[in-house]
Structure formats: C-alpha cells, structure tokens
Amino acid sequence: MKNGKYQAVFGLDVAPEYRNKGFSVLLMNTLVSEAKSEKRQGVILTCKKHMLPFYEKFGFQNKGISESIHGGAEWYDMILKFDLSD
C-alpha cells in the first residue's frame, strides 16, 4: 500500500561478488531512512534464522516464527518501530 503505516521489505539480496563489502548495510540504512522520511511508523519483514543478527543490528525486534510457509522454509517476523516524537 502506497500510504501504509509500515514499509514492508519483500526481499534484500546482494550478488555474491558484492557481498561483505557493506552494500547490504547501505541498502538497509537507505530503506530505513526513506521509510522515516515518508512518515511511516516503521519497517516490517520476514527473514530466515541465520539473518536475525543482521536485522537486529538495525534495531529490528524478532516477533517469532512467521506463519509464512513460502518455499517450505521457516521464517521469522521482524519489526522496526520508529520513535515518532523526533
């Protein structure tokens, strides 16, 4: 939804030859910054277990195992809520 309360992330992937060079951090920082400038309340996404620490570095909270069964994988719901008083 164009004017939704939360920005949803449906995928973030970096080509293998560009991994471990800071691009995923740059992408996430830009995505979060854009969501804030659009006056969203936060960002939501699902990720696999091995990615939890990456998203937690940005302040995302793990809300537990998702109901998603996409690809037969186990997914975790993550949320980053913005402090709207700033």
Helices and strands, with pairings:
Blueprint: E1 6-9, H1 23-37, E2 42-47, H2 52-56, E3 61-65, E4 76-81
Parallel strand pairs: 1-2
Antiparallel strand pairs: 2-4, 3-4
Structure description:
This protein has two helices and four strands. It has 86 residues and is α+β, with helices and mostly antiparallel strands. The protein is globular, with a radius of gyration of 13 Å.
Radius of gyration: 13 Å
Uncertain regions spanning at least 5 consecutive residues? none
Question: Could you tell me the number of beta strands?
Answer: 4
- The spatial strand order of the largest sheet comes to 1-2-4-3
Basic shape: globular
Number of alpha- plus pi-helical segments: 2
Secondary-structure element pattern, one letter each? EHEHEE
Structural category is alpha+beta
Biggest beta sheet summary: 4 strands, mixed
The amount of helix comes to 10-25%
Average pLDDT works out at 93
N-end to C-end Cα span? 24 Å
Strand content is 15-25%
Pick out its properties.
23% helix, single chain, four-stranded mixed sheet, alpha+beta
Condensed summary:
By secondary structure, this protein is an alpha+beta fold.
